[in-house]
Design brief:
Elements: H1 3-23, H2 25-32, H3 40-61, H4 67-93, H5 101-121
Helix pairs in contact: 1-3, 2-3, 3-4, 4-5
Length: 130
């Protein structure tokens, strides 16, 4: 898989997940959160709006041909997803998320690993001069 294909894949995933969080926060609360707090819907909506932003970022970054143009997007996604992975693992282990929260952990792990792989693979010292 190329980095551009991976960016389009993640853009497609966030294009589905983002609006779902934005439009159906109560459903997300029921599905994943053990004890939803008053006002938690707004935070789920904020997350949804951020994911819609990542949709555009990843989709448009996939159209660049130079790795140096894509690199900041890879760094941003990798760092965000790595933090989200740690937080989602903590939330499942401390009982804040239901067992269904492991799906969130898996999603973060897959995408963080993918961005990490492309960061490693496309690092400047791995580039070959043409």
């Amino acid at each position: 898989m190329t980095v551009r294909t991976f960016l389009r894949l993640t853009a497609s995933a966030t294009a589905v997940i983002g609006p779902t969080l934005l439009l159906f926060p109560g459903f997300i609360n029921e599905l994943f959160v053990v004890s939803p707090a008053h006002g938690s819907d707004i935070f789920i909506r904020f997350l949804g709006s951020a994911l819609i932003g990542y949709t555009y970022l990843n989709w448009y970054s996939a159209h660049y041909s130079k790795t140096t143009s894509i690199h900041p997007t890879l760094v941003g996604n990798f760092s965000t997803l790595s933090i989200a992975l740690i937080l989602s693992i903590i939330a499942v282990l401390n009982g804040s998320l239901k067992a269904s929260g492991w799906a969130i952990v898996l999603l973060h792990l897959v995408f963080a690993s993918g961005f990490g792989w492309f960061l490693w693979r496309l690092r400047p010292d791995a580039q070959h001069s043409s």
